[in-house]
Amino acid sequence: MSTAQGARARARIEITAAIKDEARRQLAAEGAARLSLRAVARELGMVSSALYRYFPSRDDLLTALIIDAYDSLGESAEAAHEAAAGPFERWLTVCEAVRSWALDHPHEYALIYGTPVPGYTAPDATVPAAARVGLLLIGIARDAHQDPELARPPLADELRPEAERMAADLAPDLPPAVVTALVAAWAQLYGLVGFELFGQFNRVVEDRETFFRHAVGQLARGVGLVPTSR
């Protein structure tokens, strides 16, 4: 790559980052539904036509912000996962990392797990980043269930066909009962975080850190995990 090409590439990276930073500021101030490419361009001193060379539409910019948010969350969860030992402890640590990230990035959390943006449908390009935390939780359960003596969650007969379908799609090497419990726990994890972040716990739960740790511990047990010190 020539010096001129390298300079252009660096300039593009810097301008792209500036556009995203301004868009995140707008998310915090106005919400995702009111994100405007023209407003972003105006705040950066750019003409709209120049910004469109980086993001052809609002939806393209939203998609980039969503992928960035999922990747940031995933990186935080993966870093926490590496620092813990034992499936139960790794589960707790990953869940606590999700909560901490959400509290530190409330507007980005709202973008990916809050109210859908009218007129926007997330493309398949967001799926790999969105799956990072879920894949961590599946991996933790997979490691734990290498132990043949580990108890499996119960599975109602009427749920078995759906459980087998989910297992085939998500983790064919895990028992359908475990996969069903994992999907429920995944949904409940984000429900717990969302209730705290969006105010539903106000005047209900005071010691939220302790409550959260207890709740996600119960989710871990529901998946069949047990503390290492048992």
From TrEMBL:
Transmembrane segments: none annotated. It holds the Pfam family TetR_C_33. Residues 36-55 bind DNA. It comes from the Bacteria. Keywords: DNA-binding, Transcription, Transcription regulation. PROSITE patterns: HTH_TETR_2 (PS50977). One of its GO terms (molecular function) is DNA-binding transcription factor activity. InterPro entries: Homeodomain-like_sf (IPR009057), HTH-type_TetR-like_transc_reg (IPR050109), HTH_TetR (IPR001647), MT1864/Rv1816-like_C (IPR025996), Tet_transcr_reg_TetR-rel_C_sf (IPR036271). Residues 13-73 form the HTH tetR-type domain. Gene3D superfamilies: Tetracycline Repressor, domain 2. This is AcrR family transcriptional regulator. It comes from Streptomyces luteogriseus.
